[in-house]
Amino acid sequence: MRTPRLLAVAAAASLALLSACGTVGSNSSPNQAQEPKPVTEVTIGFAQRQMDAPYYAAMEAMAQERARAEGFTLLFQNAGGDPVTQLNQVQAMLAQGVDALVVNAISPETQRTQLEQAAGEVPVLFVDTSIPDIGLTAVQSNNKEIGRCRACSPRSASAPAPRPRWPSSTAARTTRSSARPARRASSPGSPRAG
Q1: pLDDT tens digits for range 152-175
Q2: Cβ neighbours, 10 Å, residue 149
Q3: Phi first, then psi: what are they for 76, rounded to 5°?
Q4: What is the Rg, in whole angstroms, of the alpha carbon atoms belonging to the chain?
């Protein structure tokens, strides 16, 4: 599927952008200018909501690929759909000294206070979610456009699946076995003969 890959690429590009922009330490505000670190000294934390779909797996794969290509360290966490676990993972990454966070928030409004505190320590970028007035930016998919594209594609979810092609002998056997068995004709010496 093309759209999840595009979002994954956008998320990975955002990781690269964060790593190239210089970073801030945990004892300063994200708005204070500091000497940029070399990319090889940058650590970015990625707090993923869950991994139950190829979409999320593509995000992780692209983020790992960008980290290898650019030379920064990526700390990836999968919260398994649990907002409390995700907040604990964010706190653990902050304690490990990440320079920036990428967050795919599970429950943006209930996690608002804690993620706002994290954004006060390091730059935060939201992926596929957003919390107004928190973080640097958000990279999101356009679900309406994805639905429109999916509906127009030749293999949309509502289109019937292609029928399997059976060898003719199998098809003939299938047809005969599903038909009513033929009645046996009575022979002159049989008990049913009239």
Answers
A1: 766 545 555 554 444 444 433 333
A2: 14
A3: -105, 135
A4: 29
Give the helix ranges, DSSP H, for the chain: 2-20, 54-70, 83-95, 112-119, 143-152, 168-178
Distance of alpha carbon 116 from alpha carbon 100, whole angstroms: 13
pLDDT for 83: 94
Contact partners, residue 65, CB within 8 Å, separation at least 6: 12
Residues 2-21+37-143, CATH architecture: 3-Layer(aba) Sandwich (3.40)
Q: What percent of the chain has pLDDT over 70?
A: 61
Give the pLDDT band of residue 48 (cuts 50, 70, 90): very high
Mean pLDDT across 99-128: 92
Q: Which of 13-17, 120-124, 140-144 has the lowest mean pLDDT?
A: 13-17
Q: What are the residue ranges spanned by the domains of the chain?
A: 2-21+37-143
109 vs 26: CA distance, rounded Å? 24
Sign of the dihedral through C-alpha 90, 30, 100, 3: positive
φ, ψ dihedrals at 102, nearest 5°: -110, 125
